[in-house]
């Protein structure tokens, strides 16, 4: 996906009705020794980092349970859409663990330190509406009979992104992701570097021409 220029947006969904991702298999984990657990969690963290660093926008469609590593997967995505009946939580402390695949870092960046601490310390599960009210998800929708309401809303969101200039969207994502980690002056410099890369693109010229000619732009990603 990273190197396929035809890919504009990636949507993560589950084929299992009622479950987005239930996290690690604790029965499997119980059979591992300490070294194996550490290796497993490191690989999982690396996977989440790979998802987070995909150059195109990513959307998690949470139509059911997203617990532990499942919520960490959703947090690694740029945008999240949840069914109102979905259940989410970093429940690791209820099992004698702590989030180890990015949850302690991505949740506070998403909802703020105070709420993140409360959710992680208590291991509380929240529904889609609660998640929306605290900014954990971008949209919440009532579940439908097919059990894929969040996926359908995620597709609609993806279709809003698709017509936009692909390279500009990629540079926007890069500028946000890099800029949020530094002071604002450094962030402005990052934005400037990303903007400079966008200036010579054909899509920028097409956007200007389409505006002058009062027609929809036809972006190619070049």
TrEMBL record:
The keyword Membrane does not apply. PANTHER family: ENOYL-COA HYDRATASE DOMAIN-CONTAINING PROTEIN 2, MITOCHONDRIAL, ENOYL-COA HYDRATASE-RELATED. Belongs to the enoyl-CoA hydratase/isomerase family. Signal peptide: none annotated. Keywords: Lyase. It comes from Lophotis ruficrista. GO terms for cellular component: mitochondrion. One of its GO terms (molecular function) is enoyl-CoA hydratase activity. Gene3D superfamilies: 2-enoyl-CoA Hydratase, Chain A, domain 1, Lyase 2-enoyl-coa Hydratase, Chain A, domain 2. This is ECHD2 protein. GO terms for biological process: fatty acid beta-oxidation. It comes from the Eukaryota.
């Amino acid at each position: 996906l990273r190197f396929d220029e035809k890919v504009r947006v990636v949507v993560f969904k589950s084929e299992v009705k009622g479950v987005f991702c239930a996290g690690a298999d604790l029965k499997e984990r119980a059979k591992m020794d300490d070294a194996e657990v550490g290796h497993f969690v490191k690989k999982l963290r690396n996977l989440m980092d790979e998802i987070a660093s995909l150059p195109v926008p990513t959307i998690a469609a949470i139509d059911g349970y997203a617990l532990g590593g499942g919520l960490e997967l959703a947090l690694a995505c740029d945008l999240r859409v949840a069914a109102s009946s979905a259940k989410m939580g970093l429940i690791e402390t209820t099992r004698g663990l702590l989030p180890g695949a990015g949850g302690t870092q991505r949740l506070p960046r998403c909802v703020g330190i105070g709420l993140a601490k409360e959710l992680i310390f208590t291991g509380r599960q929240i529904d889609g509406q609660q998640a929306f009210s605290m900014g954990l998800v971008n949209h919440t929708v009532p579940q439908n009979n097919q059990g894929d309401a969040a996926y359908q809303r995620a597709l609609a969101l993806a279709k809003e992104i698709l017509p936009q200039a692909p390279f500009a969207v990629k540079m926007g994502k890069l500028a946000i992701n890099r800029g949020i980690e530094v002071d604002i002056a450094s962030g402005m410099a990052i934005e400037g570097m990303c903007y400079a890369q966008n200036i010579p693109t054909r899509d920028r010229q097409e956007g200007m021409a389409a505006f002058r000619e009062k027609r929809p732009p036809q972006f190619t990603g070049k």
